[in-house]
Amino acid sequence: MSEVVIALREIAKRYGAVQALDGVSLELRAGEVHCVAGENGAGKSTLIKILTGAIHRDGGDYEVAGRPVGDLTPAAARDAGVGVVYQELSLLPDLSVGENLLMGRLPARRWITRPAELRRRAAAMLERVGLGSLDPGTPVRETSLAVRQLVEIAKVLGERPRVIIFDEPTTALSADETGSLLAQIRRLRDEGHAIMYVSHHLEEMFEIGDRITVLRDGRLVTSAPVGEFDHDRLITSMVGRKIESLYPHTRRTIGAPRLTVRGLRPRGVGTPIDLQVRAGEIVGIAGLLGSGRTELLRALFGADPVAGGEIEVDGTRLPGGSPRRAVQAGLGLLTEDRKQLGLLLELSIRENASIASMDDISRFGLVDRRRERSLVEGLLGGLRLRSASWEQPVSALSGGNQQKVLLARWLATKAKVMMFDEPTKGVDIGAKAEIYQVIGDLAAEGLGVLVVSSYLPEVLGIADRVVVMRGGAVVGELAAEGATEEDVLTLASPSGRAAPGGPAQPAARRTS
After folding, report:
1. What is the spatial distance between Cα 162 and Cα 29, in angstroms, rounded to a whole number?
2. Strands, sheet with 448-452, edge to edge from the N-terminal-most edge strand
3. Within its chain, how far is the Cα of 393 from the centroid?
4. Percentage helix, strand, coil for the chain under 3-state DSSP, each rounded to 5
């Protein structure tokens, strides 16, 4: 057994009436990747905050190298050797990579920064994470998300940590970028770092984990070497029940076209896009990061300008450039970034769910509260939203429940076509299964559904057809049934080929 760098014993933390952690114990060992799994609300974030000194524990012991420590501040936690790479990166986009790496430790003489020394030290830090070719003077905003993630790791390594915590590090990365990051984490483990890895992507835990600890409702469920788990046992431990099918197939019949796109050219894209989504059909949009998937949905919704083309909903042409007109025509869009582009975080669950339906629930310019409550209760109740009250701030909900609030908002508009951009980003496994079921139910009710996802098993698991994009253009279609991840990646990669045999035909029926 390797050295225990940090140990938590019987940790407890309460927020008002909510017991966030109740008697949780955890050991982080040198040269080991310790994965922590659990649904949103299981206590993972609270555990990270206690480890990093962001909050104080109510009870239990915190030991560093076998020595007890009291309540830590974030500075004391860093001094104790704890570093963390958060899901929400802390880099300042307007500063250079080098300035971000050495923020708070800029080399200076008589209060004047020494640029040559800054570049030298920053270049050495970048070399360690495989970014030796990146100019330290490059502004952060000009780098890709994957590069920023590695810069963040280099910044943490600059503090010489013994423990590195990764909090959902691959949420916005492509498959290739995720593979590169996981390889970097393996190297850090082999160098002797103790790694704590938190992710909703279970396959990543099996790929790099040495041990898995499962939390549920603030309590420790189990902790064991990764070899003692299989996929089903891990899911059952996390959610407390067996999920029979992560991607349920609902019985539905493919009908007439609901969304028809002819010659659409989003701004900056030279190749026109043709696309059709039928009633009862789920069409997946796949492609590498930067392939134009999100831009396509935004163009369809009128959020981004287009250089030409036609969009029809149920045979009626939709004027471009107006999200309001798109909503009135029956389009709904769940954006990838629900916090920045979807939710109004200061408002309540009720207000967020009803805000797109003001015309229907208002009389003489005033909101009819009874009609609003009836609308919200009918929609959110059917989506099995878990909350204490509809008046609770939406910011207090888990990622899965926030996604359900956004879904309720668009269902209230009586949408004919629903477009989902990364619908399960940052969502736990139990909520994922519920969202997949909702998507299938919407298609069964006759809606056309368009789903963009970077997670290929998700696209292949829920879609009838997969449309593959590259460089802003559609490069092929595949029938989801029988297609593999390799088939999609072959089309999506820069050296990919066109799909053989023309576009795939939609399946006549998906059955349970």
Report:
1. 10
2. 331-334, 417-421, 448-452, 282-286, 465-470, 473-479
3. 21
4. 35, 25, 40
Helix, strand, or coil (residue 350): helix
Give the pLDDT confidence of 213-250 residue by residue, as tens digits.
999 989 999 999 999 999 888 988 888 766 666 787 77
Pick the CATH number of 4-239 from 3.10.350.10, 3.40.50.300, 3.90.180.10, 3.40.50.1820: 3.40.50.300
Q: Report the distance separating Cα 197 and Cα 185, nearest Å.
A: 9
When pLDDT is averaged across residues 289-303 and rounded to a whole number, the result is: 88
Domain 252-330+415-510 has CATH 3.40.50.300: yes
Residue with tokens 């449309």: 467
Q: Which amino acid is at 192?
A: G
pLDDT surpasses 80 at 5: yes
Q: What is the H or E stretch that residue 460 is in?
A: helix 456-462
Report the percentage of the chain scoring pLDDT > 70.
91
d(CA 276, CA 283) in angstroms, rounded, equals: 9
What's the pTM?
0.66
Instruction: Check whether 376 has a pLDDT greater than 80.
Output: no
| Residue extents of the structural domains in the chain | 4-239, 252-330+415-510
Inter-CA distances, 75 with 71, 78, 152, 333, Å: 12, 5, 18, 42
pLDDT tens digit string along 118-137? 999 999 999 888 888 999 99
Rounded to an integer, the average pLDDT of 73-92 is: 87
Token couple for 357: 């339906």
